[in-house]
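Q: Sequence in, structure out?
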Amino acid sequence: MAVRSTRDQAVLLLRRGVRNAEVARRLGVPTGTIGAWKHHDRAKRGKLPGRKRSTCPHCYGDRLNRSAYAYLLGLYLGDGHILLPNDYRRTQSLQVTCDEKWPGIMDSVEQAMRQVLPNNTPCRVRRTGCRDVKVYSNHLTCLFPQHGPGKKHERTIALEPWQQEIVDAHPWEFLRGLIHSDGCRITNWATRTVGGVTKRYEYPRYFFTNTSADIIGLFTATLDAVGVQWKHASRSNGGFNISVARKDSVALMDAHIGPKC
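A: Exactly. Output:
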């Protein structure tokens, strides 16, 4: 039977979970040497600790949380943007700006980022009256191929077939992301006198505003798919404004989206 070398004995003990200092004591070897042997053994087996790689369904075939992705896609198209690496940053970043009035939405954005990119940690950057919820990954342009030079409304925005398949399967999450970024739910009211008594009537409705005709088209096509009736409310400052006001359609939106919080 071959006699194991001191290094082989050390590696065997380390793999069994014996602490470095104890291995050094048993074998009479400096702890620094034991640490180096442990490092080289882990490197050889691909077991070195450190930052996990970012997940990517396209580059690595990783599983994608499709529901969370549909929501995050809506957020990105509505009010998100991707920054590419430059002299000051080495990694792509996705940034979604959230009004501080809606802390619940900030939580939802961060949760979606964690679900879509489970090995990456989102952060929040405080700005005047708002916060940017950000996540870093060099696979963001794989996940959001709509990124490109210039503003979204100045270039064509069209979903890839795999993205459209996800939106078709999770339309309400996609709509929720769009409303949470560039939409709102408001309540109009009016008074009417009936039998000498003045009564107040409230009329809730949803609005979505965007300057990209393509993104408006994605929004209204998805509304059509879930049976929500809509109409063009106005167009000002180069933007499109979509209104959902019919009682049954508002009730449907309330059941799946609801007011911002």
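The first strand starts at residue 80 and ends at 83.
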